[in-house]
């Protein structure tokens, strides 16, 4: 038991480090989702109104939907470049369990997108007249929600990575599965503005994270095996 | 144990553990407040900021419905407290006194709830009118607002 | 063991094509009879409701199609799982033929729900949990169909779309229990409650007849679609040539 756990852990950290390193080398891939997040959020005051009451009304939904779209647009980077240069096939054929490798790649993806989105979200929230004392709830929902987005997204990317025009199809496959996370995340942020108790929503987001952490790597590996053969 | 058996055992352990954690968290969540409408009591206690849109749910108090053209006014109660709701528009078919409804709108300065939308909750009983009348006479059908299921 | 032999034979494409072809007329006939009886009982015999009057009668279309939208999804996901685990071609064919039928039932449930919602709730559409989940279910069906259509190779397409169907099945229990989770505008479940159904017998009977009719309708259309799918999939085999020469 010990041996296999250790080798799985090594596989995870090796893949995780490699993907992080690759992301740091391609700065634009790191910055693009963040820039997208900032631009989309700032479109709302421009298109709607700069009235702080209106902005506060829409702030939870705008922040969450923009974070969700930014994550979705960055999903392809989990497998795309590895698919193009053929290293994905090598990973599938390797002796290590594929689900562990997938988990390593998804973890790296979250650190380079979801985590960064969470970190810059307070600044954007403030620009939407969000009360600073409630920022904690926003950060918690994003911390619990964005990893789930990456995990579920990896299934969709694995299913569409072999297709030439997978972009819109990916959105069609993934967005319905994102809806529960959006509902709980945005409603928790919304309720926090009214100083209502949001523990229930946070527990549900954590439950979704636990469930997707358990099941998504297996689904993604199965999907990769189907689409790569 | 052979390596494949070991790996299978690991997978089963991980699945059981992960789903167990998810189930526990879900159960914890259900002990908390998940409602997306507030009660008249919460409005009365001043927990809610004015000028923001929210939903309020409760039962229409018997004998409080007043109509003036398209404008309607009625009291909404959760049996402990009540709030006055004003609304202009067509009420749904199932709107009647003693019935549970959800109103979406804003609280005005005077403590009156100004609804922009009124939605009726219809109960899950389907029966011919005669049966309902028979039930009504048999034991004054308690029409309580169906809250969050325990 | 006999029953295993039957299933084994049934699972071979050629036998399936033959047996399904023989079954379709019977299924279609029974569907037609049940649909007419159910509609007659529901629209003319059943009494009006004590609160909703005549407009509740849409229940006889709305509720069976909502049930079917879930049932077909379960069939699709189970068939996809069987196909993936035991590598049975016919199971994949059943799964992929189910998707468009299920999507149609979901669409019907949404449209009838919307028509019913207007007089009852005061709005064509309200974002309550069950309506929203039904809409998500429609998206899930569309996703499975789109993914199936995106691959050129049939085998890859079937298996990839099958995985997506299984992933989406996690959403189905959420739909079913969402009524209890969120306190919404939608009523609680009427018939599936474990205690006595809270619907009068004169309304329950046509509802159940309509549900059986919808299920048989699904079976009929499924067999028809699966037969064509099998024919296309096996177009290189000898029996298909023989069959096409005969007709």
Any key phrases for this structure?
heterotrimer; A: 229 residues; mainly alpha; 10 helices; B: 150 residues; alpha+beta; OB fold (Dihydrolipoamide Acetyltransferase, E2P); 5-stranded mixed barrel; 3 helices; elongated; disordered C terminus
Characterise the protein shown here.
The complex is a heterotrimer of chains A (229), B (150) and C (247). Chain A has one domain (2-228). The radius of gyration of chain A is 18 Å and the shape is globular. In chain A, helix 8 (135-160) packs antiparallel against helix 9 (167-193). Chain A is mainly alpha-helical. Chain A contains ten helices and no strands. Residues 139-150 of chain B have low confidence and may be disordered. Chain B is an alpha+beta fold and 150 residues long. Chain B folds into two domains: 1-32; 40-138, Nucleic acid-binding proteins (OB fold (Dihydrolipoamide Acetyltransferase, E2P)), CATH 2.40.50.140. Chain B starts with a helix and ends in a 12-residue tail after the last helix. Chain C has a single domain, classed as Four Helix Bundle (Hemerythrin (Met), subunit A). Helices cover 79% and strands 0% of the residues of chain C. Chain C has nine helices and no strands. Chain C has helices at residues 2-11, 13-45, 59-86, 89-121, 129-150, 154-168, 171-181, 201-233, 238-246. In chain C, helix 5 packs antiparallel against helix 6 (154-168) and helix 5 (129-150) runs antiparallel to helix 7 (171-181). The interface between B and C is medium-sized, with 34 and 29 residues.
Question: Which secondary structure elements does this structure contain, and how are they paired or packed?
Answer:
The complex is a heterotrimer of chains A (229), B (150) and C (247).
Chain A: H1 2-25, H2 27-47, H3 52-74, H4 80-84, H5 87-93, H6 98-112, H7 114-127, H8 135-160, H9 167-193, H10 199-228
Helix pairs in contact in A: 1-6, 2-3, 2-7, 3-7, 3-8, 3-9, 6-8, 6-10, 7-8, 8-9, 8-10, 9-10
Chain B: H1 3-30, H2 40-44, E1 54-60, E2 66-68, E3 71-77, E4 82-88, E5 100-107, E6 113-120, H3 129-138
Parallel strand pairs in B: 4-6
Antiparallel strand pairs in B: 1-3, 1-5, 2-3, 3-4, 5-6
Chain C: H1 2-11, H2 13-45, H3 59-86, H4 89-121, H5 129-150, H6 154-168, H7 171-181, H8 201-233, H9 238-246
Helix pairs in contact in C: 2-8, 3-4, 3-6, 3-8, 4-5, 4-6, 4-8, 5-6, 5-7
| Total beta strands of chain C | 0
Helices and strands of chain C, in order, run as HHHHHHHHH
- Please indicate the percent range of residues of chain A in DSSP E strands (runs of 2 or more): under 5%
Mean pLDDT value of chain A? 90
Summed up, the domain count of chain A is 1
Terminal CA distance of chain A: 31 Å
Q: What summary fits the major beta sheet of chain C?
A: none
Helicity of chain C, as a percent range: over 70%
Strand and helix order of chain A: HHHHHHHHHH
Supply the CATH class of chain C: Mainly Alpha
